[in-house]
Design brief:
220 residues; alpha/beta; Rossmann fold; Arc Repressor Mutant, subunit A; 2 domains; five-stranded parallel β-sheet; four-stranded antiparallel β-sheet; 12 strands; 41% helix; globular; transcription
């Protein structure tokens, strides 16, 4: 899963980046509204953490421009402690949720998980595909209750597919959502990691759709 983190406070941004990466997300950053708008409009993200008090272009304007352009990516806005008017304006502009500063990282992570699940029509924090269960809260995967050891990239790849059961996902889409902008993206390496995942998962769980990509096929 790939996130856009928009915060002009460098200390807070660094703390959030560290926490988000530790939770298994690929993270892109922006410290002003102009860069944030450009990234959100031209890159693929699963969710955005957006501070409203930004230089150059305020966060509310960034959000409004995204929504006017038809972008539906989930957005969690950050507001000041006494900024109830900002909360209302942000939600009216198209925000999916808000968090008031100061906040605990655990709450931010929980709200992001919920936003990403809801964007795919999923309710439970535990995603299941037959004997495979992925707990989005603890980033743990089990098969028939037994823990499965995955690398961080293998986990992100499996999580992306399990958020989209039955949907065909191209290698390009996977590379766009698994790596941050400054990473060395090579869609061919996705095939390597798919192969590694298949060796760890039950047979036929990940299907190759020739010429299109991959699909997670939950057992009946």
């Amino acid at each position: 899963m790939r996130l856009l983190l928009v915060e002009d406070d460098s200390t807070l941004r660094a703390q959030l980046r560290t926490g988000l990466q530790a939770a298994g997300y690929a993270v892109d950053e922006a410290d002003n509204g102009i860069d944030a708008h450009h990234l959100g409009a031209h890159e693929a993200f699963d969710a955005v953490v957006l501070d409203l008090g930004l230089p150059q272009l305020d966060g509310l304007s960034v959000l409004q421009r995204w929504r006017e352009a038809g972008l539906t990516l989930p957005v969690l806005i950050l507001t000041a402690r006494d900024g109830w008017a900002e909360k209302v304006a942000g939600i009216d502009a198209g925000a999916d949720d808000y968090l008031t500063k100061p906040f605990h990282l655990e709450e931010l992570l929980a709200r992001l998980r919920a936003l990403i699940r809801r964007a795919q029509g999923l309710a439970s924090p535990v995603l299941r595909a037959g004997a495979v269960a992925l707990d989005t809260r603890s980033s743990r995967v089990t098969i028939d209750g037994r823990p499965l050891v995955l690398t961080s990239l293998e986990f992100r790849l499996l999580a992306y597919l399990m958020h989209r059961p039955g949907s065909v996902v191209s290698r390009t889409e996977l590379s766009e959502h698994l790596y941050a902008q400054d990473a060395d993206r090579d869609s061919n390496t996705i095939e390597v990691f798919i192969g590694r995942l298949r060796r760890k998962l039950p047979p036929a769980l990940i299907e190759t759709v020739r010429g299109l990509g991959y699909r997670l096929v939950p057992p009946p």
